[in-house]
Design goal:
The protein contains 14 helices and 13 strands. By secondary structure, it is an alpha/beta fold. The protein has a 7-stranded mixed β-sheet with strand order 1-9-8-5-4-2-3, with helices on both faces. Helix 6 links the parallel strand 2 and strand 3. The structure holds pyridoxal-5'-phosphate (PLP).
Length: about 400
């Protein structure tokens, strides 16, 4: 299937946008032994576009007619909407989720070589941004049920050079921010939320409902097209309650100055296009509905896959409102299951096959296989299945049928 679409070729997110003509409109059939082929993509952005084409086209045309493409009023409106949604004072849009993390780390003005704790089981950008900010990524293992940072492992990784922790809300479920926030307070660390996969996620912390991106010093979001809120290209944003941090971020994204050709800081070019902001603003009112549809799909899979002996469905902790950016199971003989799904055109992906402490580019950090057993085990067992909001009952049934039949043949 490689080469079928540009996103799959260009990005690590490997979504497959298969043509939809084969999709049956028939009644759900979670039969464990499907007989007809019915390809199901991992994500179907065409299906989402079809539900709101005229609104999106109009949003794009509005920017084209205005001929104002960089930052400006549309971006400001989008920032204000996201700040309201997350419940923070400031939202600063930028060019990508990667840049959101990088800009926050640069705004903290740490010393070269200062240490930032990150999980090894995440998308590369989490640790890549630390490295590119001139800081040292220090890995701490994950919790096996949520795939998120383990606060005890973070405590064990602290040194006198530790300055920050990046907690990733992987697959749409928030990391244990109660414990991580306490640890950050105790040790004077900046807690940064990598909320790239978790817009709209919530967690009850000490009895209070809290949004992803509103707990730490900063929350970092991505609007990559395959995200729960996806643009028509790259985009990112930082949320924060901190006036000073927001002011520095606003400078850093435009080469470090507020006044043209006067540079207080060495910043960079990391702005959100007005075109992206217009698309995202048009989509934002639908986000809550899409999230509910993802959660319904996840609940349906949880029930339908419960009898499958070799698949463990994802855990959603009771304090979390999980937004299911991915529906990620653990499977014994995962690669065999993957090959079977590939053969039958069922979209699936391994997020992520190689933990970051074992990446070639980080060899100089001196980590070895065996250092983070939970991350390594997860990398060998996980498989993400289609959970996008427009998934039909028949498609869900097909996915469950194909997942189940592979083991029936043992
Ligand atoms: C956990 C995580 N962090 C950071 C990023 C980086 O976001 P972007 O692709 O917008 O640079 C992503 C996006 O894929 C992500 O999933």
């Amino acid at each position: 299937m490689a080469g079928r679409n540009k996103i799959a070729d260009m990005s690590p997110h490997r979504v497959s946008l298969w043509p939809r003509q084969n999709l049956s409109k028939s009644v759900p059939s979670p039969s464990p032994s499907p007989t007809k082929e019915m390809p199901v993509p991992l994500l179907d952005l065409q299906a989402q576009y079809a539900t709101m084409q005229s609104e999106l086209d109009e949003a794009v045309l509005g920017v084209v007619r205005s001929q104002r493409f960089i930052l400006g009023e549309v971006v400001e409106r989008f920032e204000a909407e996201v700040a309201r949604l997350v419940g923070v004072k400031h939202a600063v849009a930028c060019a990508s989720g990667t840049d959101a993390i990088l800009l926050v780390l640069r705004a903290l003005a740490l010393e070269p070589g200062d240490e930032v704790i990150v999980p090894p089981f995440t998308f590369f950008a989490t640790a890549g941004a630390v490295w590119n900010a001139g800081l040292r990524p220090v890995f701490a293992d994950i919790e096996p049920d949520t795939f998120n940072l383990n606060a005890d492992a973070v405590a064990a990784a602290l040194t006198d050079r530790t300055r920050a922790v990046v907690a990733v809300h992987l697959f749409g479920q928030m990391a244990d921010l109660g414990a991580l926030r306490r640890l950050a307070h105790e040790h004077g660390l900046a807690l940064i939320e990598d909320a790239a996969q978790a817009i709209g996620a919530r967690q009850r912390i000490e009895g209070k409902e809290t949004n992803a991106g509103a707990v730490g010093a900063a929350g970092c979001f991505s609007f990559f097209p395959s995200k729960n809120l996806g643009g028509f290209g790259d985009g990112g944003l930082v949320t924060t309650r901190d006036d000073r941090l927001a002011a520095v971020l606003r400078k850093l994204r435009v080469h470090g100055g507020q006044q043209m050709y006067h540079h207080e800081l060495v910043g960079t070019n990391s702005r959100l296009d007005a075109l992206q902001a217009a698309v995202l603003l048009a989509k934002l009112p639908r986000l809550a509905g899409w999230t509910e549809a993802r959660r319904r799909n996840a609940g349906w899979y949880d029930r339908a896959l419960a009898p499958a002996p070799h698949v463990r469905t994802p855990t959603s902790r009771s304090e979390n409102y999980h937004v299911y950016h991915q529906y990620t199971v653990r499977a014994q003989r995962r690669d065999r299951l993957k090959a079977h799904l590939d053969r039958h055109g069922i979209g699936n992906a391994i997020y992520y096959p190689v933990p970051l402490h074992l990446q070639e580019c980080f060899a100089s950090l001196g980590y070895r296989r065996g250092d983070f057993p939970e991350s390594e085990r997860a990398a060998g067992e996980v498989l993400s299945l289609p959970v996008y909001p427009e998934l039909t009952d028949a498609q869900r049934g097909e996915v469950v049928g194909r997942v189940s039949e592979v083991y029936e043949r043992d």
